[in-house]
Design brief:
This protein is mainly α. Helices cover about 55% and strands about 0% of the residues. The radius of gyration is 16 Å and the shape is globular. Pfam families: DUF6308.
């Protein structure tokens, strides 16, 4: 499969996802809400809560004390409400109403000093996990110049709708679901395809 500027075969992807799951159990439980994804969008999907901020810390958002009151006071209820919690990036073609709504929400959390793309993406992915990809320094390596903003959103969407990738991600999910009950990787069979892509993009960037 092709992810950003990198390639990985399904067998290697499975091996990498197994390793990720075995070493990031707290992230899967407290950030992703596994098993069951029972907290999609958070306890209040249309505003940022302290619970949300605590969950992002588990995945390494490294929020500063000054970030917290700012995030709690951002008036983005209208922008959140315009996007269903299960809205999918696959349906957000550039120029579509969903794409524009995503960028409007992104803009609401832009401009605060010290609150960059990585922190913002971890929060927005938590709130709308099927629409917003996570980004970090390793994912930026994988996606090169298209590593932030609308260009990043479009590049990740292109990878999600690539027919060869669609086939391979379906195969990945089937194999993850078939993992033994004792395997942490089995939990990853529940996450959005977008989250699998994020994890693999980060691992591919780290491996450079």
């Amino acid at each position: 499969m092709n992810i950003g500027t990198r390639k990985i075969v399904v067998d290697e992807a499975i091996a990498q996802l197994r390793l990720y799951a075995e070493t990031n159990g707290a992230v899967l439980q407290y950030y992703d809400g596994l098993p069951g994804m029972t907290t999609v969008g958070g306890s209040d999907p249309n505003r940022v809560t302290l619970e949300d901020l605590g969950r992002t810390m588990v995945i390494g958002s490294d929020l500063r004390a000054l970030d917290i009151p700012w995030l709690l006071e951002v008036e983005a209820e209208k922008e959140f409400a315009a996007i269903p919690v299960d809205a999918r990036l696959e349906d957000a073609e550039r120029g579509s109403a969903l794409f524009e709504a995503a960028m409007a929400l992104d803009e609401k959390f832009t401009g605060h000093r010290g609150f960059g793309h990585a922190k913002k993406s971890k929060l927005l992915h938590l709130k709308r996990p099927y629409l917003f990809p996570v980004t970090d320094s390793f994912i930026r390596m994988t996606y090169g110049s298209a590593s932030a903003g609308s260009e990043f959103l479009s590049a990740v969407r292109d990878d999600l709708v690539n027919p060869a990738n669609v086939r391979d991600f379906k195969l990945l999910q089937v194999r993850l679901i078939a993992e033994p009950a004792t395997s942490a990787a089995r939990l990853l069979g529940e996450v959005p395809t977008l989250r699998l892509l994020d994890i693999l993009a980060s691992l591919l960037g780290e491996a450079k």
